[in-house]
Amino acid sequence: MAFASEGRATSCLPHRELPGRPPRDGYGVYVYPNSFFRYEGEWRGGKKHGRGKLLFKDGSYYEGDFVDGEITGEGCRHWALTGNTYTGQFVLGEPQGHGIMKYQAGGHYEGELFRGLREGHGCLVDADGQVYWGSFHDNKRHGQGQMVFRNGDKYEGNWVRDQRQGHGMLRLADGSTYEGQWHSGVFSGQGSMAHCSGVIYRGIWINGHPMAQATRIAILGPEVMDTAQGSSLMLTVQLQQDSGEVATSEDGRELEISAGVRYVQLPAYSEVSFFRVDDGLGQTPIQTPFGFQCISYPLSSPASEGPEPRAALESASTDSLLPDGDPGGPPAGKHEPRCPGSRRRAERGCVQFSDVRLGPPPPGYHAILLLEGLHEKVGSRPRGQDHRGMTPVAQGPPGGSRLDGVATVEPAAEAFPGEYVIMIRDVTTPPFLGHTLPTAFKHLRVLARGAGQQPHVPREDLEALSRGAQD
């Protein structure tokens, strides 16, 4: 660092110095002609040399070693404008070598520097307490390094100009981990995530998102499944991408199976008109994609030695089976009973539910018989006809007693013939990457023992029956 050679000088040397010139040797104080610099310290041959302190008019200063008039060696530099202070090695007036920089805004850096910039290996603690250990280039995190973030996340891997880029591993505070390729600070390329929910995704990532992630649940089989009364089903479920391909890159998503019974049954399939549910059970009709509503209905698992519907219904008030806001399931706060073993985790995008069986109507569910008067009004039809669109004419009296042609049925040992719905929900907790898949539905018809496939009924006949029920 070069300075003007003229100014006021004082010296402790015994010989006389010329006024306005810096001291030649020993200890002295010199104020430079522009009055911006003031030096107090050791001199040799008319140059600052040894230990000294250089003061700046704005309040900045350097105190430490000088060599032949230059700031070189060990010292401390303070910048009044930024409030930063550096202590360590200097070369020709610049922080260079090893040192510690303390920042006025908070945080500090300890490590190697070159020409005043972070260069080489060091440790940076920012104002938020986040810590980085590793390589630097041109004042930026660059090369191999590891960082602990404010939220508890930890990253170890490659950096390029302050961005995570290349290969690295991220350990999230919630226990999730990602290992793979990065670009511009996000997952990009081949990588694997083990989510804290138990979901594992292995595959390609684009801009932080899995390229082959599941977006929907599909229940395989015909559009309407027919099953005999009292028999069990085996259902195959796939997690599918938008393209319809199976999301084989995904494991561990938790799915739950539940059932519903059509709220208003049709004469074509059942002797029951509808179910009246005790108010205390808090069952709200669920809208299905098949044009009708259903209410939750228990499943029975052979391994559980029969259903426990009352306990299941009562526990529904405390166990949430569907995240709030899922448009494909029951309203928030309304839940279905479920049987033991109703949850499965996907493997390579597939789940299989075996021995799925509908249980008998639980306590509090009162089956209301079809109205004989209604049949007479709209005309008798063969039992095999499909009277879709019929609406109930009575909600039924409390207690299930007979009133105005409406009658309840004695408790049954198995599910009544009629129309039901199977629902598969994504109950992964917490949701994988913050997203819950929409609920999948399958239309199920339970046929009376010995009954065959029901014939098709023209839509105009169904509309006529519906109008007659409303008259």
Automatic annotation (TrEMBL):
Composition bias, Basic and acidic residues: 379-389, 457-471
This protein's encoding gene: MORN1
SMART domains: MORN
InterPro entries: MORN
Pfam families: MORN
Region ranges (Disordered): 301-346, 379-402, 450-471
Top-level taxon in the UniProt lineage: Eukaryota
Protein name per Swiss-Prot or TrEMBL: MORN repeat containing 1
Keywords on record: Repeat
Residues annotated as signal peptide: none
